Each structure stands twice: as C-alpha cells, then as structure tokens.
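step=encode ok
step=design start
structure_in=
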C-alpha cells in the first residue's frame, strides 16, 4: 500500500469515526440525564413521604421543650414531700423520662436541632440542681420558688431551643 491509498482510506473512515464519536457522546449524555431524572424523581417521592414525619418530629421536640420548661414543669409536677432532694430527683427524672420518650425523633431533625434540644434539657437540669444547692433552699416549695424567681431574671433554657425549631421549620416551606 502506498501513501495515497492510506490517505484515501483515512478520508473514507474519518466521517464514520466522527459520526461514531458524536453518537457515543450524545448517548452517554442521554443516559446520564435519564439517571439524574430517576434519582430526582426518587428523591422527590422520598421527600413527599418523609416531610410529614420530619414535621411531626419537630412538633414532638416542641412539645418536649414546652413540657420541660421549668415554669410548666413546676406547675405540672408537684412535690410529694417537703424534702428538696426528693423533689429535685422527681423533676430531673420527669425531664429524663420525657427526653427518652422522644429519643427516636433525632432521626428526623437536623443534628444542630438535636444538639440544641439536648443543651436545653441539660441547662434545665443544671438550673434545678443549682437552685437545690443554694443555702436558702430548705424545702421543696422553697425550691420551686427559687427556680421561678431565677426565671424572672433570665429566659428559660427551652426558649432558645424553641426559637431555633421555629426558624428551622419555617425554612422547610
């Protein structure tokens, strides 16, 4: 074969190679677009099903924070005796029980929301413990009074967590 035959062969093969390359590129793009469309539709269906669950989880976290807010907790959980340590234990056990009842909700809320909710729970427990160890606290009723007095000066720990939840839920719309 001489050079002229090779050049003629290349010129006759070149259109087929170009058409084949373009066809490969378009088919590849088409398949990728189809895969993206399938993933999008699947994600859309999953969101449609998970949105009510997420919203319910935020509702449960709100209910938990409202129920463990010191002012509401103290009116709902009354002391069984005048012993301040017994009342402290009862309040903390009530908070822990409420929290354990809602542990599964962490799957549906953001990590930041869950961390803030835990921090509010721990801050409420700290508030109760600090009030218990004060010198003027000698009875369960005095403990209630001191906790409520402390809340007049500063907001309840659950208030910040509730504000965060409201903001996060408003972003979901």
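sequence_out=
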């Amino acid at each position: 074969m001489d050079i002229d035959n090779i050049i003629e062969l290349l010129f006759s093969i070149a259109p087929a190679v170009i058409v084949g390359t373009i066809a490969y590129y378009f088919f590849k793009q088409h398949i990728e677009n189809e895969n993206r469309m399938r993933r999008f539709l699947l994600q859309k269906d999953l969101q449609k099903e998970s949105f009510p669950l997420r919203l319910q989880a935020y509702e449960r976290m709100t209910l938990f924070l409202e129920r463990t807010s010191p002012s509401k907790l103290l009116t709902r959980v009354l002391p069984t005796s005048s012993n301040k340590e017994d009342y402290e234990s009862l309040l903390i056990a009530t908070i822990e029980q409420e929290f354990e009842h809602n542990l599964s909700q962490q799957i549906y809320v953001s990590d930041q929301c869950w961390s803030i909710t835990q921090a509010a729970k721990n801050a409420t427990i700290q508030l109760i413990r600090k009030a218990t160890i004060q010198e003027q606290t000698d009875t369960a009723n005095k403990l209630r009074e001191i906790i409520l007095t402390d809340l007049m000066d500063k907001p309840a720990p659950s208030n910040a967590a509730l504000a965060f939840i409201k903001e996060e839920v408003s972003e979901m719309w």
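step=design ok
step=annotate ok -> The two ends are 72 Å apart (CA to CA).
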